[in-house]
Design a protein that fits this description.
This protein has 224 residues and is of the alpha/beta class. The protein has helices at 3-21, 24-33, 40-47, 51-63, 83-99, 101-112, 122-131, 142-147, 185-195, 207-212, 220-223; strands at residues 38-39, 67-72, 75-80, 134-138, 149-150, 154-155, 173-177, 200-202, 217-218. The longest helix has 19 residues, at 3-21.
Length: 224
């Protein structure tokens, strides 16, 4: 192999991995899998895809070794290959935030259309948790909460929030969080809470960012 062949080979492999990221739905699937292991049916329902299309996207991610699988009977579960996959996705987000004005315009418009949705930062939330003057609610699906969550957070999936409002203290502010800065579950939760007359805000980032910062977390097993 000469130098030209070597460069063509390695850059071709790099391009193949980059192509795996070149799909909005595959990025969304990775964003979900960063929360924890999921089966194909759950991923399809969460991403708004058919099972067939979800399987095709997952096979592309598997071919480039971005995800791995395990079988449990007839069910196949997917997970990200390692922490570097999550880091790559987060770095891509940060690069886009710095370089793509269109992205910032979309984000600004989304939040400007929702009056009073100023978020709370992770550092500010740590301080308030120490004072004990907030209730933190994880509005992701229950299986994501079980995989790991902010320490002492209450699990109330968004779909259950309206009927479980009475279980939340009426005299404390509620901080909702979800998968990350581009997940809208916490935004929708704050809207529901405020319409019900509750004082509420959302966490700036999601659980992956909270965990990556080394802040207190626990799994369902540890919470028992």
């Amino acid at each position: 192999m000469n130098g030209r062949e070597f460069k063509d080979s390695v850059f071709g492999l790099f391009a193949g991995m980059a192509q795996a990221f070149a799909s909005p739905k595959r990025l969304e699937l990775l964003d979900i899998l960063i929360q924890g292991e999921r089966d194909v049916e759950t991923l399809a329902a969460t991403a708004g895809l058919t099972v067939v299309n979800t399987s095709r996207h997952l096979q592309k991610l598997k071919q480039t070794r971005l995800v791995e699988t395990r079988r449990d009977g007839v069910r196949i579960f997917y997970r990200i290959a390692d922490a570097e996959v999550a880091n790559c996705w987060k770095n891509l987000q940060r690069l886009a935030e710095r370089r793509l004005s269109d992205l910032n315009n979309v984000v600004d418009k989304f939040f400007s259309d929702r009056e009073g949705l100023e978020p709370i930062s992770g550092e500010a939330l740590i301080g308030r948790l120490r004072r004990g003057d907030v209730t933190v609610v994880d509005v992701r699906p229950a299986e994501e909460y079980r995989s790991g969550h902010i320490r002492n957070a209450v699990s109330i999936p968004l779909a259950e929030l309206k009927r479980r409002l009475s279980r939340l203290p009426a005299d404390r502010e509620i901080v909702a969080y979800c998968r990350g800065p581009y997940c809208v579950l916490a935004v929708e939760a704050v809207d529901i809470l405020r319409r019900a007359g509750r004082k509420a805000c959302r966490l700036t980032d999601g659980f992956p960012e909270w965990k990556a910062a080394g802040r207190p977390i626990q799994s369902e097993k540890e919470a028992r």
